[in-house]
Amino acid sequence: MHFTEFHTRVAAYAVIIDADRILLSWYNGGPHGHGRPGWSLPGGGVEYDESVEQAIVREAMEETGYRIRLGDPLTTNSFTDQAGSPADPGGKPYKSVRILYTASVVDGKLGTIEVGGTTDRAAWIDLDRVPTESRADIVDIGIASWRSHQLSVPGDPIAS
């Protein structure tokens, strides 16, 4: 299928892990019900006039109340959906491209500052207690990529 025959959405996410806890945001399903509510990584769509990195920093602030510092790129992931799907009801098939980075908190106060958006709250959750029944697949992708990255970082205590 030629790229003019489908819609594309680029999204960027932060994997923020500190002391065996991960920072997650609660996606409320959005104003048009474009997905089921559940835990997700802080992140979202890249705006027309911003870089992937700028989008991650902006989204993290909106969804968690924290100013973050980006670390390493972790992975990319993509999926497709059929025409008229809840993800893109515009009549064309849909492709989502998702980019994940590690990040750390610089400062701020935990709390969603986005008004009228798709995030209701944010929370630090123990890595081994992330709810399985109410989380987006991007959380699993982020955790697995982060763990793999930790094993490849020389001198990291986890890799030793």
From TrEMBL:
Keywords assigned: Hydrolase
MF terms (GO), sorted A to Z: hydrolase activity
Cofactor(s) recorded in Swiss-Prot or TrEMBL: Mg(2+)
CDD domains, A to Z: NUDIX_Hydrolase (cd02883)
Pfam families: NUDIX (PF00293)
InterPro entries: Nudix_hydrolase, NUDIX_hydrolase-like_dom_sf, NUDIX_hydrolase_CS, NUDIX_hydrolase_dom
The Nudix hydrolase domain, residue ranges: 7-149
Source organism, top-level taxon: Bacteria
Similarity comment text for this entry: Belongs to the Nudix hydrolase family.
Protein name: ADP-ribose pyrophosphatase YjhB, NUDIX family
